[in-house]
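=== RUN LOG ===
request id: a7f3
mode: sequence -> structure
chains: 1
length: 71
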Amino acid sequence: MTWKAEIDPGRCMASGMCAGIAPDLFVLDEEHARPRHEEVPEEERVLDAADSCPALAITIRDGATTVGPRP
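=== RESULT ===
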């Protein structure tokens, strides 16, 4: 199963936290981070990356349900 990862470029401050936690799933470009692929595996580290984003720019969805960041 997979989730969908989105990063809001208007909120992303390029801290690199997501790429540090899951470098095979997120990459830091010149100005913003981005998911390497739109679909990401249903793994704890995906949620950890979303939770760790200081700008709360990462959203992880399971269909229409938002699963990350966690409250």
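=== NOTES ===
Strands lie at 2-7, 26-28, 33-35, 39-41, 58-62, 65-68.
Residues 1-66 form a domain with the Alpha-Beta Plaits fold (CATH 3.30.70.20).
=== END ===
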